[in-house]
Fold this protein.
Amino acid sequence: MPPTVFAGGEAGPWNVLSIAPVKGPTLPMVPRLEVFEDAADAAALPTAWRLRGRTSNSRYTRRDEQLTLSARQPALGRPDATRAALIPITKSPAWWALAQDERRELLEETSHHIAIGLQYLPAVARRLHHGRDLGEAFDFLTWFEYMPHDAGAFEELVSRLRATPEWDYVEHEVDIRLAR
Amino acid sequence: MPPTVFAGGEAGPWNVLSIAPVKGPTLPMVPRLEVFEDAADAAALPTAWRLRGRTSNSRYTRRDEQLTLSARQPALGRPDATRAALIPITKSPAWWALAQDERRELLEETSHHIAIGLQYLPAVARRLHHGRDLGEAFDFLTWFEYMPHDAGAFEELVSRLRATPEWDYVEHEVDIRLAR
């Protein structure tokens, strides 16, 4: 699977509604966003910025959680899901120096990241892209799609996650909102 | 950290003693191997093949295991460690579809991968490079360094790991032995 490229510029089906710095520097405002499922297709397009990440195997999800997620999570591209968010984040060196059991414990047993996300399914479709092992500035690019009437629920999801102990390890976060 | 490149060709400090297919196709025999810590340095060199991977955070190691490993594992580049092995492997789609707890269980509780490796420390120095998220043909490139009188211990380590249930998920493996 090639990496996905999120390209901010003058072209693309998504209108950029806002780009807000949550922690650390922001990205320049652009009018449109295009999502390229193959980075090679993005090469020719002039853009203000491009963020790259790759879907990968799950890193923390247990089998029981994975089964529940699979049963509830909708596919991307629902025709009535005309709102989207792209949230790039980078975690601190302290996070990456933790052992696997410590990261799992913080993510789920302490912060309930998976359990909180489950409460907003099937309203909010989600896809995670990994950038860290590609040498990108952002460790993760999470893409969300939802219907306009679920916008309140989405705000709640985001603010609950940002209040968790896991988020103490987030050192750079930008919040990009979109509509089509 | 840029990816490391292992370049097989006419140049480099390592003499290639053998290249053996363990499972699936082999790589072409070459006389020498060069290790580039920065892929950019490898670009100009004509080579028969090059394998790319990046060191990353641990994926399965618990804190207690990580502490024991850190206390025992030697650095690469010991002057008397004149033997090396490069073992590229790719695991099956079935492995990557497993949940995190299932992969951990197979790797350690069933196969004792970490515990077996610990028994050969500090004799065998080791560094793991991840290629899967870079889109490389091999998921992992493991590099080992040891002294000639530890060659028997190294053979034992490799054969014990290949006999584990975890190795049922290995679908491509090549074994490259080197000396300098």
About this structure: Chain A has a mean pLDDT of 96. The two ends of chain A are 26 Å apart (CA to CA). The longest strand of chain A covers residues 14-23. Strands of chain A lie at 4-9, 14-23, 32-36, 49-53, 83-91, 125-130, 140-146, 170-179.
